[in-house]
Design brief:
This protein is an alpha+beta fold. It folds into two domains: 213 residues, Electron Transport, Fmn-binding Protein, Chain A (Pnp Oxidase, Chain A), CATH 2.30.110.10; 139 residues, UbiD C-terminal domain-like (3-Layer(aba) Sandwich), CATH 3.40.1670. The protein contains 14 helices and 22 strands. The protein is globular and about 80 Å long. The structure holds flavin mononucleotide and manganese (II) ion. The site of flavin mononucleotide has 16 residues, from β8 and α5.
């Protein structure tokens, strides 16, 4: 595991190199280069230096974990694992007993190399990008981490929620309703108090990963979970104007408070979202920044949303597939593979099962449609047999084309857990506050009640293959 983001970048440099871009403008150019690079199959890590109008050394890094190899490097998995193999590796890692390891407080750390408070605070000191053409402004926080303390229970939550810069000392944090960070800040506001907050913009990869996973439950600090993953406690220092614990090796930290909604609201967004479309702007409470801490020559970590952006967040479709597989294993027998389609902005889930009883396939589809990890905005669930590799799109299309009779193999269910960023949400539903969407459940597998009579697939048996190989007719 890594000491900080710099050690990770150095390791990537030794392993495969990275793309250095000098002289790009924070205004759209960093974003455009990031998105173009993201679409390349072997997408490199990109480091931006000498950003237009900024001091050399004030850097932005993007596309940190886009390839399976860099994802594996960051999470301590086999570097050569790909596709379903990587899903399996991650699945067995998170199946272990989690032994939480709390952080340790140290006297100081690199994050305190530069400290500015009060009038010295200037958020424009850093080259925060405007990522997409229709975005409402500049975002210092995309690959960031928001630190808060639950006022009643005392534990620390970390969550990745985007941060827009509005003024020298004013920012906003966008937290979707129901996020742990949102629940915590409401507890302060209900008491009429502002919510203390610290935001890191650039931090050690494993720690950042934990702040992006909805599978870590309420009440469990992502710091402690990261300690378990790293097998070493995270080192923290005390904040300057809050008493929040801050990672000692973070690059940039913004400390301050989110004021209650009645005190000050600011229009946030619009912002290009992970489904591949722009979301709406909306008023959110102001984040008043009272102190900025940063390392010498700080690096902002950027992870801007786009239809492929999950790749940069540790190939999120792979991690989410492993998480769904674990969930299904608790209830449904015979699951042989789970795959979330990155190309479909992770809205299509494919599950292969060895059918064992009547209704087994439909049960699997219904279960997959409901879990946290796959239910939110997941639009289609496809069940295939165990001779189909769910991560192989041509296999899946073959199953869809040949084992699915729309009249009897498909259901739609409405009223499901959706989001304001759903591009298919009609203006009418939006105005009524009805954010639900519908899902299709597709059984692209042999009908169980006549499975034995189903036409045998044209394949080559292992014996025949061996024979023609032995005779050197093929390699
Ligand atoms: C790159 C990235 C950006 C994200 N941005 C946001 C965001 O702006 N707002 C939000 O509510 N969730 C966002 N999320 C999702 C949350 O980080 C995720 O649900 C996490 O589990 C939240 O932590 P919590 O469970 O402690 O609330 C983002 C996730 C990733 C990977
Ligand atoms: Mn949490």
């Amino acid at each position: 595991m890594f000491y900080d983001i710099r050690e990770f970048i150095q390791r990537v440099e030794e392993l495969e190199g990275y793309k250095l871009v000098e002289g790009a403008d924070w205004d759209l150019e960093i974003g455009a280069v990031t998105d173009v690079q993201l679409a390349i199959p072997d997408s490199p890590l990109v480091l931006f230096d000498k950003v237009k109008g900024y001091k050399a050394g004030y850097r932005v890094v993007t596309n940190m974990f886009t390839t399976p190899r860099r994802t594996a490097l960051a999470l301590g998995l086999p570097l050569e694992a790909r596709g379903l193999e990587l899903v399996r590796a991650w699945r067995s890692r998170i199946k272990e007993d989690v032994k939480l390891i709390p952080p340790v407080q140290v006297g100081t750390g690199p994050v305190k190399e530069n400290i500015r408070t009060g009038d010295e605070v200037d958020l424009f000191e850093f080259p925060s990008p405007k990522w997409h053409e229709l975005d409402g402004g500049r975002y210092i926080g995309t690959g960031c981490m928001v630190i808060q303390r639950d006022p009643d229970e005392g534990w620390i939550n970390l969550g990745t929620y985007r941060v827009q810069v509005h003024d020298k000392t004013v920012a906003t944090v966008y937290m979707a309703p129901g996020r742990h960070g949102d629940i915590i800040r409401r507890k302060y506001w209900d008491k009429g108090q502002p919510c203390p907050v610290a935001v890191t913009c650039g931090q050690e990869p494993t720690l950042w990963a934990t702040s992006t996973w909805p599978s870590i439950p309420w009440g469990v600090s992502e710091y402690d979970y990261a300690g378990w993953l790293r097998n070493r406690p995270v080192e923290v220092v005390k904040g300057v104007v809050t008493d929040l614990p801050i990672p000692a090796t973070a690059e940039i930290v913004l400390e301050g408070e989110m004021v209650p909604p009645e005190v000050e609201m600011i229009e946030e967004g619009p912002f290009g979202e992970w489904l591949g479309y722009y979301g709406y702007s909306r008023p959110v409470p102001a984040f008043r920044v009272k102190a900025v801490l940063h390392r010498n020559n700080p690096i902002i970590m950027g992870s801007p949303p786009s239809k492929l952006s999950g790749r940069a967040a540790f190939n999120r479709h792979i991690l989410m597939s492993a998480m769904l597989w674990n969930e299904l294993d608790r209830q449904v027998p015979g699951v042989k593979g789970v795959w979330s389609m990155q190309e479909a902005a992770t809205s299509i889930w494919i599950i292969s099962i060895q059918q064992q009883y009547a209704g087994h396939a439909k049960q699997t589809a219904l279960a997959a449609a409901g879990f946290n990890v796959s239910g939110y905005m997941g639009r289609h669930v496809i069940i295939v047999d165990d001779d189909i590799d769910p991560s192989n799109i041509s296999d899946v299309l073959w199953a869809l084309g040949t084992r699915c009779d729309p009249e009897t193999s498909m259901d739609t269910i409405g009223g499901c857990w959706g989001s304001l960023i759903d591009p298919m949400l009609s203006p009418d539903k939006k105005s009524r506050g009805d954010l639900t969407h519908s899902k299709s459940l597709i059984l692209a597998c042999k009908p169980y009640h006549w499975i034995k009579e189903f036409a045998p697939p044209v394949t080559i048996s292992p014996e025949l293959l061996r024979r023609v190989k032995e005779k050197k007719f093929i390699d």
